[in-house]
Amino acid sequence: MIKKYLLIIFIIVLLFFVSYFIFVNKNFVNQYIENSNNNNIKNQIQTISNINHPKIVELQNGDSYDLNIDFVNHNINGKTYRMLAYNGSIPGPIIKVKQGSEITLKVKNNTNFSTLLHSHGVRLENQFDGTHLVQKEINPGETFAYKIKFPDFGFYWYHPHLREDLQQELGLYGGFLVIPSNNDYWLKINKEEFLFLDDILIENNNLVLNYENADHTLMGKFGNIMLTNGQTYYSLKVNKGEVIRFYIVNTANVRPFNFSIENTKLKLIGSDNGLYEKARWVDSVLIAPSERYIVEALFDKEGKFKIQNKTPNKSYDLGEIIVESSFTDISYANFFNKFTDYEKTTKDIVNLKQYLAKKPDKEIWLAMNMGMMMNNESMGMMMTMMNNNMNHNNHNNSMMQAADNIEWEDRNPSMNKISNIKNIQWKIIDKENGLENMDIQWKFKKGDLVKIRIFNDPNSMHSMQHPIHIHGQRFLVLARNGVQENNFAWKDTVLVKTGETVDILVDFSNQGKWLIHCHIPEHMEAGMMMQFEVE
């Protein structure tokens, strides 16, 4: 009988807070427009244009390029939503530069809120990293010139580093393709394509946004509509026999994508900051938020082939490749079918493999604390019930189980919706001294090679995967749960699954003050961020 009354109380309290959340959660973009104090910006916002297709812009060493942040109208499933864009497109321009080049991006803020631009993965000069550690916010109407040098080839991206949970969610992301200084580095292909995988949460024909503080901090904001290059259904036409190189980045807040192309063999050749030692054949590629992967595919049969996100329990169609009957003038199938070793990658890291067996220099834990919502006894009870339901080690409900120790979906949307930065605290903990988050202030010398062990505590109040990103440096993933990697590539982000221990070797070669954080924006807003300095 008591259990029955407790359940009724729980349901009443839950409904109350969900209703309260929906009532106070106003539309972010409209609220900023209404509160604008800048008449010039306000006049610009009244004439908002529709989004454009992203441009590929090739820049030479020393070039400058204007990157404007504006509101745009974006049609999603027949309804127009007011979103954000760099130079009017989602994604923003793909900027192609040659390795070793330096360019200047003049970022103009034509919106009603402050922002920053982070060049994700680029080992640039510290003062242009675009974080609160090194730069003041770019306020409405202001312009800031970022000088960006590209020492490493590969595929990188840019996005805000201020309220990413809003600004990135609304469309602020774009890409850098850094071309190797050696023109013979790549095998020949017919085309290169860029894929930005994303999702967005829309309920009752409204974008689910909170302009005051980050919410959905328990798990991060999962979207219910998938977007590829800002489109609900991406389509690419190719000729039969063509080899296509895809540069793929996950720009979603929290959703991992398991990328595949129906009935198509994929050749995985690169990750965040360059190529693997060896190419390998795969059926799919798991991509965590902010990670990038480079894959090639040969389309030698006519027909339509779906691009999919294939999770353990469900597959989402993201688009399709239409292979036409006409055969390409030149086919590079012979190059594609070769088993490829990238000797330059191996030469770059061969002397670093001695660190595989070394004890870690630093160890950090990933965990979470849950507070009492509004100090309410009933809500405290609700949090306890939530903890019992969501602890991965103490339940038998298969619907609650995270497949492969990864949260592929929002498994508890009601609880997630009412979580925020006040009642959830995500933590990075220094095992050596117990310091947490921004109280951690590591110091290194330029050129230090540091082995860091990252442990994702499965006994945390709520444990889930975390994509851990390190600013301004690059690293190698040495081992997972004690099993050594056997095919290396330079990275800047690593996915650490629930209960997993990951060893990385960081090349601290870039001086300045930098951040390490979870790249789920809601987790970062809820505290999951630390700092370090390279002297």
Strand order across the biggest sheet?
14-11-16-21-18-19
pLDDT averaged over residues: 88
Number of distinct beta strands = 34
Give Rg in angstroms: 23 Å
Helicity level:
10-25%
Strand content: 35-45%
Pick out the low-confidence regions: 3-29, 31-43, 388-401
| Quaternary organisation | single chain
- Sheet with the most strands, sense and barrel status: 6 strands, mixed
The chain-level structural class is mainly beta
Shape: globular
Count of helical stretches: 9
Distance between the first and last residues' Cα:
64 Å
Model description:
The protein is globular, with a radius of gyration of 23 Å. The chain has 535 residues and is mostly beta strands. Helix 1 (2-24) packs across helix 7. The N and C termini lie far apart (64 Å). It has a six-stranded mixed sheet. Strands 25-24-27-32-29-30 form a six-stranded mixed sheet, with no helix packed on it. The chain is built from nine helices and 34 strands. It is 15% helix and 40% strand.
